[in-house]
Structure formats: structure tokens, C-alpha cells
Design brief:
30% strand, globular, Heat Shock Protein 90, alpha+beta, two-stranded antiparallel ribbon, 2 domains, 11-stranded antiparallel beta sheet
Amino acid sequence: MSWPPTVRVALASRPDNVAVIREIVAGIADVVELAGGLDDVKIAVSEACNNVVMHAYGSGEGPLEVDLRILPELLEVVVRDHGVGIDPLQASRASETTLGRGLGLVVIAELSDRFELRRLEPHGLEVVMGFTARARSDRLGEGGGTDLADCEWLAAPDGAVHLAIAPPALSAVVLDRVVVVAAARAGFSIDRLSDAQLVADALAAHIVPALSAPRLMFAAKGEQRRLELALGPLKPGGSRTAFAASAIGALGGVIEHLADEVAVSESGSEELLKLILVDQRPTPAGAPA
């Protein structure tokens, strides 16, 4: 069975993570023609994510999950939490004034072509938004993806942004955006941030033939001048294949050349690739490390 092209995202319900989702939405807009406009989609999705940040887990944090599916004539975005902050029935009965000021659901309903609230058991909420759109086959290619509903996230540091992408060719429009945001959070210099983007572009361009499944699992975390990336599942020897494909003349493999650490671990017949990039520029006197 062919499933629609899908990007799944899992990250912590922190205010700064809403920017990550906005960047991913902007990337997906490169492979669809939106009938309305990208700004409307970004605003509606941001409102839904902000609701999770502000209401789903009280004063704490919890998982924020976002699915983006490219359906025939529709871009569907599902924002999901597993908290207890907003009850769909109560929300539907609230006044428009309250919703517009407090929850932003009226804004979401106005900007989307399809809108639905779904209660999850034992607790949680899905905000489902649909935006009229047509897939650009010249950017997306033909064929669909695979089911990501029960995908297992890669082992990664706490606070990492997790992505599952199917078909993996979709990584070309989202990986560099996520990596650049993570590198900026890590405090990378412009030069080192450019290096991180080159690594992301090389991975997106050369990793697909090395994958052992029709999906890409990816994780990224950036803090304190350190960027950690993980991706898989790869075929045996898949990492070497990707490194060799990224070679540029005498420079050699871009991925190996620009990463400070490269590690390949094996799980059964599959490989997991982990990369670490560090910004090692001197710290100015009196500045925090």
C-alpha cells in the first residue's frame, strides 16, 4: 500500500521549538502549490503549536508532535499533544472572543480550509488542519511514502528534534532548515553554520541510496557550540557509500571533512550514522563559553 508523502516531527513543547516547525512547513511549501499562501499556513500551524506550549502541560513541558501529509489537493497538518490543557468539547462551546484571544482556534479555523479537533485517549488532543494544495511532481517525484504511524525514533540526546520522512527524497527540503536552526541555537559562527548546512545538503543529496528502508529517521540537537546529528536506518556499508558520494575533488568527502566526529553503530543488519560538529573559534575575553 502506498501512503502519502509525510514528515513526522517530535520535539519538546518549548516556545523556541515553534520556529523549527515553521521552518519545516516552509520547506514542505517548496514541493506543493498552496492555493492560499504560505503565511496563512505558518500562522495557523504556529497557533496550534503555541496552544500546546501554553496549555497542554500546565507549567511544564511535554511532547509536541506534528505530522505533515501531502494528500491529493490538500496539505494536511496535524498538531498533537498528550497533555490535558485543552478539552475539545469545552473549546467548541467557548465564545469566539475567548477563542480568538486565548486559544487561537478561531484564527486556525479561518485560515485553514479544513479544521477538526480530535480527543486522544487516555488524554491529549489533535488539531487537524487542511490547506488546499497541489503536489509539485517536478520537486516531489512520483509515488508515495510508507506508513510512519508507528515509527521508532532514533536514540538521541534529550531535547533533540526528531524527524521521520517518507519518501526520503523529501529530506531535500527539510533537513537543511532543521540543521541550520539547531546550529544557530548552538551559537555557531556564520562560517561554521555554513559548514553545517553543507553537511545537511550532502546528507540529503546522497543518503537516500544508502537507506535500508523507504524512510529516513533523523535527529538534531544544538547547544553550546556543539551540533549532534543522527540518521538511519542504513544498509551495511551505507555510511561509506554516502561519504564516497559526497566527495568533491581533492577535498574528499564533504561529510567526513566538515564533521569533527563520525560514528557508525550497527543494530542487526542496519547502520546508524552519528555526526558531531563543533564550533571551536576562540571565546572572546569575558564572554561566556
